[in-house]
Amino acid sequence: MKKVIVSAFESFNNAKINPSYEAAKLLPRRIGEAEIEVIRLPVVFGEAAAILEKRIDEERPDAIIMLGVAGIRTKITPEVIAVNIDDARIPDNQGNSPKFEKIDSEGEDGIFSTLPVTKMVENMTKEGILSELSYSAGAYVCNDLFYSIMNYLKTKDLSIPAGFIHVPNPADSDETTKSAMSTPEIARGIQICVETVLEEMEDTP
């Protein structure tokens, strides 16, 4: 059986929940022929990536989908590229606040997602799920995790499809900026993304 790791984040910045984890918890434990493992990560620069890297080494999953919340967005947004920069607008959950620092001093400036991001958006849109591509994952812990994992896979020469997806705040959120989507709708969108990745893997010889 295939294995897909889906990571999401704990709450941060005084929020009660993190919609990425609330949606991830609603995913079925099996999608098609793949077992789904959901991991909750700390909102801490470097630490989140270290935890996920350890799990990748232990499990050697067939695909990795990282989730985070982008509170100013109203759609599910698969990220196209991770950039080699940490620039915290607010401290992380351990008080770290890097300012315009490279994640890897010898790493590439940017690394593209290896998920079928265009197809994921296409399939979500067909199902009536609000979605669009994003070309910036920001410079906070989400991008730190995204870049670090893509860089790690590249360095280790692991050809595991991986990438990052930002989700919006759900309609019932207490946040000022929120989408029209419910948490189950967001979870459905993520499930479609997982299904798309698995379909692409089957089509690849």
Descriptive notes:
It is built from 5 helices and 8 strands. With 205 residues, the chain is α/β, with parallel strands linked by helices. It has a single domain, classed as Aminopeptidase. Strand 2 and strand 3 form a beta hairpin. Helix 1 packs across helix 5, helix 2 packs parallel to helix 4 and helix 3 crosses helix 5. The model has no long low-confidence stretch (mean pLDDT 96).
Q: For the record, what CATH class applies?
A: Alpha Beta
Helix content: 25-40%
What fraction of residues sit in β-strands?
15-25%
Q: What's the rounded overall pLDDT mean?
A: 96
Major sheet size, sense and barrel closure: 6 strands, mixed
Provide the domain count. Answer: 1
Number of strands: 8
Query: What CATH architecture would you give?
Result: 3-Layer(aba) Sandwich
Number of helices: 5
CATH topology: Aminopeptidase
3D shape: globular
Spatial gap, N to C terminus: 17 Å
Low-confidence parts, pLDDT < 50 over ≥5 residues? Answer: none
Arrangement of strands in the largest sheet: 2-3-1-4-8-5
Under CATH, the homologous superfamily reads: Peptidase C15, pyroglutamyl peptidase I-like
Secondary-structure element order, as H and E? EHEEHEEEEHHEH
**Computed CA radius of gyration, to the nearest angstrom:** 16 Å
